[in-house]
Amino acid sequence: MTPLRLSLAVGDYDRTRALFDGRVTPAGTDLTTIPVPSAETFVRMLQYEEFDAAEMSLGAYASLVSRGDERFVGIPVFPSRMFRHRDIFVSSGSGISHPSELSERRVGIRRYHMTALVSQRGTLSDEHGIRPDQIKWVRAGIERAGAIPSRVALRLPAGVRIDKVTDRTIDDMLISGELHAGLLNFSPPSFRRGDPRIRRLFTNPREVENEYWRRTGIFPIMHLVVVHRRVHDHAPWVAQSLMHAFEQSKNLALSRLLHTGGTSLRCFPSSTSTPKMRYKPLAT
User: Where does the pLDDT of residue 258 fall: very low under 50, low under 70, confident under 90, or very high at 90 and above?
Assistant: First the structure.
């Protein structure tokens, strides 16, 4: 059988490296793996459908599926997983010290549907009883002003309202106190510079995240891999072939962590854990 030519756009991570260097090839395929930053991949796949398979925002994919958009078939491969407690920031002058105090506050976001915010909203709702309609959402850039386009069309829940600000950044508004908090996917530049006017809501995020993991067993998924519907309908076996190849590539990366020159044991919750079943990188 002639191998099926297949293009795959995914981040060049340790766990995908074997797909790039040829140590792993999905069975039955002639694979071209393209290293593309995830944010760029999402746009090129969602708007232009450039690739046969690609890394995809879980939040964007869920939004598409909920509307009956079946252009892509998701497979259980998750190139990016990350705790997001550490990406909730507050203005130091807001007086906010607990998540429950975000009710009726002005909170900055980049995109309502982005996976990081979906995870954070879930944390606020499930862990602290704060519903999305209890927050005054403000959409803006974190470090650059201007319009922040949505990657998918939004259908907001009843009672949820989002104000847009295009001439100020979330960083600016946290510093000035115009925003009480920000539910973000990376730290604001002023915080990175050590400005005391912005701080994390959770002052001990690593401990909070580890406790969350121990209690729930959840390591939040940020990205998955999708196969374009045209490929899946033509060759449905590709989904399983890709899944097995990603698993092989991940296991090769894990095996390198077990080399005696590495710090691999710190990557597992307990000494009895096995890499295949319990791999959990420390949140950084």
Answer: confident
First-last CA distance in the chain: 45
CA distance 25 to 18: 8
Distance of CA 100 to the CA centre of its chain: 24
Number of other CB atoms surrounding residue 101 within 10 Å? 17
Q: In the chain, where does DSSP find H-type helix?
A: 17-21, 38-48, 58-66, 115-128, 170-176, 189-192, 205-216, 229-234, 237-257, 275-278
Question: Are 283 and 83 spatial neighbours (Cβ–Cβ below 8 Å)?
Answer: yes
Band (281; pLDDT cuts 50, 70, 90): very low
CB 77 within 8 A of CB 171: no
Q: In this predicted structure, what is the pLDDT of residue 262?
A: 55
Contact 170, 179 (CB under 8 A): yes
d(CA 142, CA 194) in angstroms, rounded, equals 16
CA atoms in the 13 A half-sphere facing the CB of 186? 6
pTM recorded for the entire structure: 0.87
Could you tell me the CA-to-CA distances from 150 to 42, 109, 111, 221 in Å, in that order? 11, 12, 7, 20
Where b means 16+ CB within 10 Å and e means fewer, 194-216 reads: eeeebbbbbeebeebbbebbeee
CB 35 within 8 A of CB 10: yes
- The DSSP line for 132-195 is GGGSEEEE--SSS-S----SS---PPTT--EEE-SSS-HHHHHHHTSSSEEE-SS--HHHHTT-
